[in-house]
Known about the structure:
The protein has one domain. A two-stranded antiparallel sheet has the order 1-2. The radius of gyration is 20 Å and the shape is rod-shaped. With about 60 residues, the chain is mostly helical. The chain contains 1 helix and 2 strands, in the order ββα. The protein starts with 6 loop residues before the first strand and ends with a helix. The longest helix has about 30 residues, at about 30-60. The model has no long low-confidence stretch (mean pLDDT about 95).
Amino acid sequence: MIDxxxxxxxxxxxxxxxxxxxxxxxxxxxxxxxxxKHTERVRRxxxxxxxxxxxxxxxxxx
Length: 62
């Protein structure tokens, strides 16, 4: 198993041992950050779908 060097969490600054070279968040912050990012992504998707539906309705009723 590869041991990675400790690095600071991007969110809180605490040192943690990552499980992969791409890890950015400590185990305490990761679920909160991923949940927040998911919420933002879904909000943007719903906005796009609503705009597309409005555009479609405008085109079909013309």
